[in-house]
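In response to reviewer comment 3 from the previous cycle, which asked for concrete evidence that the modeling workflow produces usable outputs, we include below a single protein chain processed end to end. The sequence was submitted unchanged, and the resulting structure tokens are shown without manual editing.
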Amino acid sequence: MQRALLLLFTLSFFFLSHAQEDKISFSEALAIHLPKYNKHADKAYRDKNIARADELFDSLVNYGLKGAVLDNFKVTNLKKKKVYLNEFIKPVYLTTYASWIIPTEGEVPALNKLAEKYGEQVDFVILFWDNYETTKKLAKKYHSNIRILYVDELQNNSPYVVKMMKHSLGLPTSFLLNNNKKILDIRRKPSHPYGIEFEKSFALNYDSLSSAISLLLVNNSSRYLTAEKNVSP
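The workflow returned the following structure tokens.
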């Protein structure tokens, strides 16, 4: 009887461990949850119920997309070389953007300040949905610690997930990824009226971005401490 219980416990532990190791990709998670989200979000936007739309987005992220692993897609850098997501070895703060979106007054300065401060601990990445010439001009606004990448949709032969990142969640959208590209959170930038004082805009953006970077650093620190504990004699 004891041997049977021991065998049952061992098998249960084996299957539980492997189940926890199973990973779902971002594209798979989208395929499962996006249709239902779109149905309800479209109605909320038609009704001009922005609060409901925001609530639906948060629900999609929290219950459908967090924990998924962002697919190892490829895009292009400013040297016109292909770059794969998995080439980044640090936690990643990835924002999708486009030239037709006008940043708020303090948005880029706040991001530059944080990239200057935490560039050795976090990979800051901006992914533009633009051609090379436009992206190169926009890149001049950003700190050297921020990697500027782009996707020219007229020449895009990247995986399906690249298009899904743009067309499913809107722009700009920020992905917070740990070292293994697991999604810790997906966020939209803070909104405020255009034309407010620079100091207020900077403070709003800096606080929002700081909380995102803190999440990446805390998660990375926790993983490091766990690894250290596991190898301790």
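The chain has a mean pLDDT of 85. We consider this sufficient to address the reviewer's concern, and the full set will be provided in the supplementary archive.
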